[in-house]
Amino acid sequence: MRLQLENFTKAFDGVPVIEDMNLQVEDGEMLALLGPSGCGKSTTLFAIAGIYRADGGRILFGERDMSNLPSQRRNVGVVFQNYALYPHMSVQENIAFPLTVGKNRMRKADTVRPVREIAELIHIEELLARKPAQLSGGQQQRVALARALVRRPDVLLLDEPLANLDAKLRLEMRSEIRRIQRETGITAILVTHDQVEAMSMCDRVAIMNKGEILQIAPPTEMYRSPVSRFVAGFLGNPPIVFLDGHVTGECGFTMEQGLSLPLPQRLRGLSSGQSLTLGVRPEHFGTSGAAVASGKVTFVEPQGRETLFDVETAPGVVLRSIQPARQDVGIGDTVSWPVDAEHLLAFDAAGTRL
Amino acid sequence: MTRNFSMLPLLLVIVLVSLPLMVMYGFLVLDTFTDAPPGELWPDRFTLRHWRFLFDPTEVGNVWAASFNSLVLACSMMAIVLSVSTTAAYAISRLHLPFRRFFLAGILVMHGFPAVTLIIGVFFVLNLTGLYDTMIGVILVKGSLMLPFGIWIMKGFYDAVPWEIEMAGVQDGAGRFTVWWRLILPQVRPGLVALGVFAFLDGWGEYVLPRILAPSSDIQVLSVFLNELIAGDQLGYDFNLFKSVGLFYTLPVILLYLIFQNRLMNIFGGGTKG
After folding, report:
1. Can you tell me the distance from the alpha carbon of B34 to that of B58, in angstroms, rounded to the nearest whole number?
2. pLDDT tens sequence across B17-57
3. Residue B40 is part of which domain span?
4. pLDDT the model gives residue B274
């Protein structure tokens, strides 16, 4: 079901946290709300769930205005960060709980079949008799997901669902949640502060800061053409390096510390002397390109398949480079590596991309 | 477990300090089954005659009636304290209650307030309402004096239940009452059990309130009954009889403690274990 926020506003104790936010999630789409802590992404999620009342604007599921309905009548499935399983109930009872309450409640015997169906979808059939305390983190996560889905909700909300898992399980659950979302075709919103999760799991990413959505785009597009310095800095691991300097000549860029680089062709025509911030992603330094930057290697981080280098190209100016694993360069070596100038990102003084 | 000091001295001190208590309890039990020659400490013969009060009302009066009254008082305490504490504490812990801070402060003050100082006022109120010298009057007064403690303890248990469990319940489509009854209450069950036992024991052991507020003999509770045995103006108390009735009075308490000792410790832990 399509989900829409219109001029959504939320304040706590009179202090507005989110003002006039507009957001649309298409039917069957999975959208990530990505942002640093305190940016309002969880507030938005809880407002959609009905845990928080919106102070202004409308929340629409399809054509229905849900703004003033209590949580119980919104038909939203929520997976909480700490799973919030009911510790005194077995897995079977946990998943069956949503079916046994509310207006259309079922008798306990009737819940066996739907619970089994959802358990099969989520691969937890063999766990139904256990108590939550007897499950691993990943299994608890699956049970929470099953419980959220058993009522066939219109919208599935995931609040930092992977934050409490260890690295390997996180990888597994990432693709699992995506698979389940695809198979059920449910509209889903994922709240996360982890850009890898957001990019790998979702159709589109909405990046938020200070209660505002800065950009909504498919992950790749957002990575390639971020609208602002903040977005560029938030996406990418290892992160982008920002260089503050100014335009020189027809199409050049110089930093006070001495580093000079050419600007991409598309930025030809900027007035000379204009201050500018250049963003260099690590994959655009050291692999290919026409321009060259040289300096001394100050740090080497082998990551198995790839190696990460820090190169000091001018006093205090460190460029980062990620390359297929190589061992011929070590700390202290002087290198001259190509810079892919056409892929550099440039931002004006206000942080907007040029 | 590794110990970096010897436990022996500690044990010795504990034994020494509690020795007088143990001796007294020993003699309490021993003296109910034996007779000692006048002036001697050590008994010389076994007898069951001190326990005749159990079936012979001419001995000291009807002990079963007093036991029944004590039981009524204790059970009412349990019922009142449990029902009011579970609901009131939930409201104070979780709901946006008007005057919540006022209630909290009030409970804390009442919790530490010496109840006996209220007794004259309470007497007048009971007299006015016609509840003086009735069991209901005693129950109401004792119950209200115990409630601050119960509410405070239960609030601690509710506070320890994760907020998300409640939210998850609401998202699953359950009303607030269903959530409380089916999801939250089971989480605080250790607290309920402990508080219930405490309330029962407190009611069972109460002496001052029934003594002052319900002096009639037909609603006499065991503690008052026991007191009459030695407070009377008759000559020569039968200490062995007194000890027998005393032991009879204490047995349920000891039994409850034995059964629930682990659960009672929960109250001081103040929460559920994951």
Report:
1. 21
2. 999 999 998 988 888 888 888 778 888 888 888 888 888 88
3. 8-48
4. 35
Please indicate, yes or no, whether residues B238 and B155 belong to a single structural domain of this protein: yes
Q: Are residues B38 and B75 in the same domain?
A: no
* Residue B207 covered by a domain: yes
CATH number for B67: 1.10.3720.10
Q: Which of B253, B243, B213 is nearest to B25 (CA)?
A: B243
Could you tell me if A163 lies within 8 Å of chain B, comparing CB atoms?
no
pTM for the structure as a whole: 0.82
| pLDDT recorded at residue A242 | 93
Q: Is residue B223 part of a domain?
A: yes
Contacts of A97 in chain B (CB under 8 A): 169, 172, 174, 182
Residues B38 and B71 in one domain: no
Same domain for B105 and B206, yes or no, is yes
Judged by DSSP in three states, A348 sits in coil
Residues of B in Cβ contact (< 8 Å) with A78? 167-168, 171
- The answer to the question of residue B178 being in a domain is yes
Q: pLDDT tens digit string along B58-68?
A: 777 888 999 99
CA-based angle A188:A193:A196, to the nearest 5?
Answer: 80
Supply the DSSP symbol for A351: S
The pLDDT score that the predictor gives to residue A288 is 86
List the A155-159 sheet strands across, edge first.
A76-79, A155-159, A187-192, A30-34, A204-209, A212-217
Q: What is the mean pLDDT of chain B?
A: 87
CA atoms within 13 A on the CB side of A294: 4
| Domain count along chain B | 2
CA B243 from chain centre, in angstroms, equals 21
Tell me if ipTM is over 0.90. Answer: no
In chain B, what residues touch A50 (CB-CB under 8 Å)?
A: 170-171
